Structure formats: C-alpha cells, structure tokens
C-alpha cells in the first residue's frame, strides 16, 4: 500500500526525481555503527536518504561509544547518529568544549534503569531497590562465582558501562555481586532472553526504547532521587566518590564533526531535523523483535509506513527522490 502511494505521489515530480543529485563531499560519508538496535536502524534510514536523496556514498564504521566520540573529534568519523547524553555527559562536555564536535538534532527521549523481570518481583516482594540486592544475592547466583549474585551490566566499551560500574561501587555491591559486562550488545541480549525464557531470576541494566525492553514484562529497581551533581560524577570514569542516584530521562541526539558541518551544510541541515516520536520508535523496535529482520529491512519498513515523519526532515525535491527510490 505504501509503495503504491509513493508511486502516485511522485508522479508530479518526475523531472525532479529523475535528476541525479551531486553529493556535497567527494568521498563516502562516514557513519558510526554502534551495535544496538535503534542506532542500527536509524543509521540505515539516514544512509538511504543520503544516498538516494543527496547522491552521496556512505560507509559505516563499527565503533563503541567513547571511541566514536574521539573519532568525531579527530574527524575520522562524520556522524554519530545516537549519542545518549547521560552515558557520556562528562566526555561529551569536554568534546563539545573543544569546538571539534557539534550537537545538531534531538532524536527522542530515552531512558535507562536496572531491571528485574516481573516474575522475579513476584517471587521476591521485598526486593524494591538496588540497595536491597545484597540481601538477595543467593537468588541471582553467578554461575562462575556461586558465592555471589550476578548483575548484568552494560556491554564492554559502551558509555553506560562507566555509570553501571560507578553505581555498583556506590552501592558497595562488590562483596555480594559480580558485575558482568557482556562483550557485545548481542551477547547481552542473548543471555537475558535465554534467562527470561527459562523464568530464571536476573537483575540487569538496560535501556529503552529497545526490542528487549518492549518484549519483556519488567520492573525497575528504585534508586535515590535523581541528583544532577551526583549523576554527573557517575558518568565520569575518574569519579572518586560515587554516590547513588536514579537515572534521569536520557536525551538522545545526533552529533557530527565540526569539519563535516562545514563541508556538507545540506546534509547537516537534514540530520539536524531527524527526530522520531518515542511511541513510533517503540513500534519500530517491536517490529524488529517480531520479524527478526535485519536493520536495513526494518529501516525500509519504517520509511514505507512513516513518510509523514521523515519527509518533514527534507526539502521537497529530496523527499521526492527518496520516495521514488522506495
């Protein structure tokens, strides 16, 4: 249906759509390929638009959060589609102060928490907060260190790993729990999904919107009220005296190298307008979970079903070329 509509709507712009656009920069546009689902899908959406709408070549460089920020500063990376501010507040502030990177568009408001499944909450009704965890260590046995419980933290190398580690330290959990950092986001998701299907007790860090958080019935563990000063320290790898604080709402935005904004003002203008309502992002993530489709297929599904969203990011002639390509 969406494809048919695209065909009808583009007939009035045949001449425009037929024109082959010339990219502003004579090299591939370099996107950061973070390995979590929302980023993977949005990168594919942006690449499709850059290629079909602006005539650019693109490539994706696999990189983790903190190295990506350094690559942006060096100019080795042009675009980091999803920066989760709370996970990198301190490093981002330093990078932005250098003048070498720019925050150009707000995607949506994300969130983070430490979760337990609802079935665990029903088994352990007295487990309400992260500070209660030491009393229940035997309910979350670490298979590699059975005298302690296991807390699934953030994947290694991600910005959220710093916050998870500092919260773990702030709550003095080291005597009763191990902080397990999966090697990748996919490893983390596979371990959590397997445990959930077997109805095993588990406690873990996760973020949303994500297919996993949307597909499981989860309960957040309480933290002391959010305190900006405390949380800023939690995001700092060198925080000397971490103090517990709840996660705040997490602004997710697009960052680019300052050099890229100078070389490609039209692409920068497009990227600065990219924003997706959180309920729509939830639906996209749920579709990805249900279909198990690859990110580029999910990106196409999003574009075919939400042209009223993405067409607002683009000039009319560019939107026409993208619709024709779909």
Describe the structure.
With 326 residues, the chain is an alpha/beta fold. Helix content is 45%, strand content 20%. It has helices at 2-9, 14-18, 37-54, 65-74, 89-97, 118-123, 160-170, 185-197, 211-215, 228-234, 258-263, 265-273, 278-291, 295-305, 307-310, 316-325, and strands at 29-33, 58-62, 79-84, 101-117, 141-142, 145-152, 177-180, 203-208, 218-220, 250-257. Strands 3, 4, 5, 6, 7, 8, 9 and 10 form an 8-stranded mixed sheet that branches. The longest helix is centred in the N-terminal third of the chain and has 18 residues, at 37-54. The relative contact order is 0.20.
Structural class: alpha/beta
Q: What would you report as the Rg, rounded to the nearest angstrom? A: 21 Å
Shape: globular
Order of helices and strands: HHEHEHEHEHEEHEHEHEHEHHHHHH
Number of helices: 16
Annotation, overall tally of beta strands:
10
Task: Give the mean pLDDT.
Answer: 91
Distance, first to last CA = 12 Å
Beta-strand share of residues: 15-25%
Q: Spans of 5+ residues with little confidence (pLDDT < 50)?
A: 1-18
Helix content: 40-55%
């Amino acid at each position: 249906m969406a494809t048919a509509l695209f065909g009808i709507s583009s007939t009035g712009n045949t001449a425009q759509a037929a024109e082959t656009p010339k990219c502003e920069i004579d090299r591939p546009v370099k996107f950061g390929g973070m390995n979590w689902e929302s980023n993977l899908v949005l990168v594919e959406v942006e690449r499709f638009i850059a290629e079909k709408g602006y005539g650019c070549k693109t490539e994706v460089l696999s990189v983790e959060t903190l190295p990506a920020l350094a690559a942006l500063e060096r100019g080795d990376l042009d675009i980091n589609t999803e920066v989760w501010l709370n996970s990198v507040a301190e490093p981002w502030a330093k990078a932005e102060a250098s003048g070498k990177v720019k925050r150009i568009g707000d995607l949506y408001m994300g969130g983070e928490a430490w979760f337990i499944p609802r079935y665990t909450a029903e088994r352990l009704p007295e487990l309400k907060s992260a500070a209660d965890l030491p009393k229940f260590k035997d309910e979350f046995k670490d298979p590699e260190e059975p005298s302690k419980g296991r807390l699934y933290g953030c994947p290694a190398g991600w910005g959220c790993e710093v916050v998870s580690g500092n919260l773990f330290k702030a709550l003095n959990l080291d005597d009763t729990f191990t902080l397990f950092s999966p090697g990748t986001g996919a490893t983390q998701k596979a371990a959590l999904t397997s445990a959930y299907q077997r109805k095993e007790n588990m406690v873990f860090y996760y973020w949303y919107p994500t297919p996993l958080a949307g597909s499981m019935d989860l309960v957040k563990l309480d933290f002391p009220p959010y305190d900006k000063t405390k949380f800023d320290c939690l995001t700092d790898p060198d925080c000397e005296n971490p103090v517990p604080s709840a996660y705040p709402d997490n602004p997710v935005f697009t960052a680019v190298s300052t050099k890229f904004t100078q070389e490609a003002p039209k692409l920068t203008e497009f990227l600065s307008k990219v924003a997706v309502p959180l309920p729509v992002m939830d639906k996209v993530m749920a579709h990805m979970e249900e279909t198990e489709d690859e990110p580029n297929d999910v990106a196409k599904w999003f574009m075919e079903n939400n042209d009223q969203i993405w067409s607002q990011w683009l000039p009319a002639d560019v939107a026409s070329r993208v619709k024709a390509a779909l």
